[in-house]
Design brief:
The structure holds two protein chains of two kinds. Chain A is an all-alpha fold. Chain A is built from 15 helices and two strands. In chain A, α5 runs antiparallel to α12, α10 runs antiparallel to α11 and α14 packs antiparallel against α15. Chain A is flat and about 85 Å long. Chain B folds into two domains: 176 residues, Rossmann fold (3-Layer(aba) Sandwich), CATH 3.40.50.300; 124 residues, OB fold (Dihydrolipoamide Acetyltransferase, E2P). In chain B, α3 packs across α4 and α3 packs parallel to α5. The chains are: A mainly alpha, B alpha+beta. Chains A and B meet through α10, α11 and α15 of A and β6 and α3 of B.
């Protein structure tokens, strides 16, 4: 079923999954429309306010809800060599009978063919590892920025945000130059005398991890910084006053109070990393199975739109679970802040 | 004025006057500067076991910085801090036998009332049973038993204040530091809590050092007060001493209200100084302990409640000021008369409204005379 890996593509620009995930999240929030309408009926929500909020909801319905329904529809059809390359769900038979043909074969394939399972699991594994590394790197960074003098904070934050001003694709390509056999890292290690032969960094899970961690680190640092900089300094003073040493105070006060930032940052890294396509495509090797890459291959190399659509729908479901959790955590943390105020 | 004070003064031995008493806190020439600004400037102070000591002053006078240095949250630039005989100048806060109640309370938002109170006990490695017992004791002390499982954000301001107090007392500190403990409460609750805090302090016998900008609060609660301004201590003494015998114009003006007149010493007889005030054209006779040379520039401080207003010219040669009633403020229990002297100086005089519905003895624009006894004035040299 699976064709050989596709060559690096120059089609996409920027991590497609980030905006994609953001859209899903807002779409999930769109379910509050129901509550809104009920509020209007009961007269608790003003029409003026409803009109304003209706605009983004309409936008999402048009540019996310509708396309998603199209993808969902295609995932239940069969692949044919035609234009478009899939069969319609509804056909008119003779005698005015409408025939609905729903094909579950694509989803069955996802379950039966271990390739897809492996790709899913590998995506989750790499994304989880990348998230953990981002957390370990990002927490001290965010902590240092939050504790820095006020005049230093803005320049330090700028350093975190600055890479976004360069194209994502160029930054990932740059890592090829660093990690390849004849690249900067290997040359440096040989020059230092650490190794004799270049180490194969490129086209491995390692290089994919490096790429994901590098690309998504700011998404970990920023929410952590937001949480840590809002923390009340007098809580640590109170802890010290009550006999708590600084190290323990960090574990019992700072860390638990920054959990909302940890969750937010982890979700912002993990969710797009699961669906990542560009980084494994450019930095990964033939053995790097990730669901984003499988999806791409099904669509563009295999031309099997129905299976690709099924993969897309399944990926979405895989992501919805953490998303709902994320939203819940977010709600709880804002509720906590509101109550504190 | 202070209701609780009389009772306290009777009950308590005035430890700071006992020559054998050893102070629990010794602050020796402590200085702390932030940049070029001296927050605390060469302060020395001794505080004794069982005292309720107040550091009183306007915001920015250095009182909080001094308190934070006692807690170990700031380090002095020079000088020594000795607590219970041990030099604590450079000991970190987590090793001091001192606890602090923060102005913002600084309750841990992710812990329940119980866990907040237990926090300090856990740090010193108390057993579960000990912690449980002590937490129950503290909850009882501050009457918060029903709220043990609540989080700080589920409590009212007054309840949070009591949690903060219980948490800071849980470890049996030798010394409790209170940073504006009543600052965040509304007026009614504040008055009630003042007495509660004093009662708890007397019950436990712990030494309390409180920072406040509210002179009435300091007067009501303290055994002694140190009045601070610009990083220095201007006067230390019991509330009555500070009120009746202020040492400087700033102290006289800061504690209660006062009328101040500038003049020069012109003579002295029987411990009474004669002071002529050019601006109001009057000679005042004020009782003063030590004689001062003729010509010394001084100020005379007169409390509003220590003067009398009459509509008949008094016989006396001294201590008479003539004026016109310019404003009357009726406050219910008392009325305050603002009397304009010929040079436009406004003097305020407080009269108690003893009987109901009596026609006020004086009315607007009426010519009146102000008089007072020599013992009721204070001579100030700075």
């Amino acid at each position: 079923m699976m064709p050989p890996p596709v060559p690096p593509s120059s089609m996409s620009s920027g991590p497609p999954s980030i905006t994609f995930i953001g859209t899903i999240w807002r779409w999930l929030l769109g379910f509050t429309v129901v509550a809104r309408v009920r509020g209007l009926a009961m007269g608790t929500v003003s029409w003026g306010r409803a009109m304003v909020t209706a605009v983004p909801f309409l936008w999402l319905a048009l540019f996310f809800g509708l396309p998603f329904l199209v993808v969902l529809k295609i995932s239940f059809s069969e692949a044919v060599i035609a234009q478009p390359p899939y069969t319609p769900l509804l056909t008119w038979a003779d005698d005015g009978i409408m025939v609905l043909r729903v094909n579950f074969q694509n989803y069955l394939l996802l379950v039966q063919d271990s390739l897809y399972w492996m790709a899913y699991l590998n995506s989750v594994r790499l994304a989880a590892m990348a998230t953990a590394i981002c957390l370990l790197l990002g927490y001290p960074m965010a902590y240092a920025i939050a504790k820095a003098k006020a005049s230093f904070r803005v320049p330090l934050l700028m350093l975190i945000i600055l890479p976004f001003w360069t194209s994502f694709l160029i930054r990932v390509y740059a890592w090829i130059g660093i990690l390849k056999n004849n690249g900067l890292l290997n040359n440096l290690l040989i020059w230092l005398g650490v190794i004799d032969q270049p180490l194969p960094f490129m086209h491995t899970d390692f290089s994919v991890l490096v790429g994901i961690v590098y690309s998504y680190l700011p998404f970990m640092v920023l929410p952590l910084f937001a949480t840590l900089s809002r923390m009340d300094e007098s809580l640590l003073e109170a802890a010290a006053d009550l006999g708590c040493r600084p190290g323990k105070a960090f574990l019992s006060i700072t860390l638990p109070l920054s959990m909302s930032g940890v969750v937010a940052g982890s979700m912002l890294v993990f969710i797009p990393a699961v669906g990542e396509f560009v980084i494994p495509d450019l930095l990964g090797g033939p053995n790097t199975l990730m669901i984003g890459k499988v999806l791409w291959t099904e669509f563009f190399s295999n031309k099997d739109w129905p299976v690709a659509s099924a993969v897309a729908v399944a990926t979405l479901l895989l992501l919805v679970v953490p998303l709902v959790w994320f939203q819940k955590a977010q709600e709880e943390s804002t509720k906590k802040v509101e109550e504190l105020v | 004025m202070p209701v609780a004070q009389g009772a306290r003064a009777l009950q308590k031995l005035e430890t700071w006057q006992d020559p054998k008493a050893r102070p629990i806190v010794q602050i020796e020439n402590v200085t702390k500067a932030f940049g070029s600004h001296y927050a605390v400037d060469d302060v020395s102070l001794e505080i004794f076991q069982g005292e309720f000591f107040s550091l009183l002053g306007a915001s920015g006078c250095g009182k909080t910085t001094l308190l934070r240095m006692l807690a170990g949250l700031e380090a002095p630039d020079s000088g020594r801090i000795i607590i219970d005989g041990a030099d604590m100048t450079h000991v970190p806060p987590y090793r001091r036998p001192v606890n602090m109640m923060f102005q913002s309370y600084a309750l841990f938002p992710h812990m329940s009332v119980e866990q907040n109170i237990a926090f300090g006990l856990k740090q010193e490695g108390a057993t579960q049973a000990q912690i449980r017992e002590r937490v129950a004791e503290m909850l009882h002390l501050v009457r918060l038993e029903p709220y043990a499982k609540r989080r700080p954000h589920q409590l009212s301001g007054g309840q949070r204040q009591r949690v903060a107090l219980a948490r800071s007392l849980a470890k049996h500190p030798r010394l409790l530091l209170l940073d504006e403990p009543l600052g965040a409460l509304d007026k009614k609750l504040r008055e009630h809590t003042q007495f509660e805090l004093v009662n708890i302090q007397e019950q436990l016998g712990t030494t309390f050092i409180m920072v406040t900008h509210d002179q009435e609060e300091a007067m009501t609660m303290s055994t002694r007060i140190a009045v601070m301004d610009e990083g220095r201590i201007l006067q230390t003494g019991s509330p009555a001493t500070i009120y009746e015998y202020p040492a400087t114009r700033y102290v006289a003006d800061f504690i209660g209200s006062v009328n101040l007149f500038d003049g020069r010493v012109t003579g002295e007889a029987d411990g009474v100084l004669l002071i002529h005030c050019d601006e109001v054209g009057s000679t005042m006779a004020i009782a003063h302990g030590e004689p001062l040379p003729v010509g010394t520039p001084v100020s005379v401080a007169l409390r509003p409640e220590k003067m009398m207003v009459t509509d008949v010219k008094p016989e006396s040669e001294f201590n008479v000021l003539r004026g016109v009633v310019s404003e009357i403020a009726y406050l219910g229990d008392v009325s305050i008369y603002y009397v304009a002297l010929p040079n436009k100086t406004l003097v305020h005089v407080q009269l108690t409204n003893l009987a109901r519905n009596t026609n006020a003895p004086m009315t607007w624009e009426q010519d009146v005379w102000l008089t007072w006894e020599p013992e009721n004035g204070v001579v100030l040299q700075s």
